[in-house]
Design brief:
The protein is mainly α. The chain is built from four helices and four strands. The protein folds into two domains: 44 residues, no CATH class; 77 residues, no CATH class.
């Protein structure tokens, strides 16, 4: 019984449905552009991806340390005599989350308006869309022979 081999970036059922067979990581498969002759392009992870995860880990550890150092119960006095008793780090996290949500809510109309404007400008510009096939380009002119300026040999 032969086992189905799937590409690392595709689910096994997707690879089978498309009739593709995953290839080993060879120099040949890495040098082909994506979509060339039905091959699956295997990409190396971007170096910034590891850096981003490192920054996230450091941020998580800093916030975790902040939470461990602020376990004292704190009382937040709200309106009409109501109180909220919680550890200090919970109150800090709630304040941060509330501020982030408020910032997103304030910026969302502008983002949507800019996106709508960008789509309408792209539709009315008459420029080819990104998914359209590019027109054929004219071949580059031949460069002049060495020692020829303006079509005449040097020194004449």
């Amino acid at each position: 019984m032969a086992a189905a081999v799937a590409a690392p970036n595709l689910r096994p059922d997707t690879a089978q449905r498309n009739g593709r067979v995953a290839r080993d990581r060879t120099l040949e498969s890495r040098s082909k552009p994506p979509g060339a002759s039905g091959s699956i392009a295997l990409r190396r992870p971007h170096p910034m991806r590891a850096f981003n995860w490192f920054v996230r880990l450091i941020l998580f550890l800093l916030l975790f340390g902040l939470a461990l150092n602020n376990l004292e119960p704190t009382v937040l006095h709200l309106l009409f005599g109501t109180q909220w008793r919680a550890p200090l780090f919970v109150l800090l996290l709630a304040a941060f989350a509330l501020g982030a949500l408020l910032g997103i809510a304030v910026m969302l109309p502008g983002w949507l308006r800019a996106r709508r404007l960008q789509r309408s400008l792209a539709a009315n510009s008459g420029l080819p869309r990104a998914d359209a096939t590019p027109p054929a380009q004219a071949p580059a002119p031949n460069p002049p022979a060495p020692g020829v300026i303006d079509g005449t040999p040097d020194g004449v």
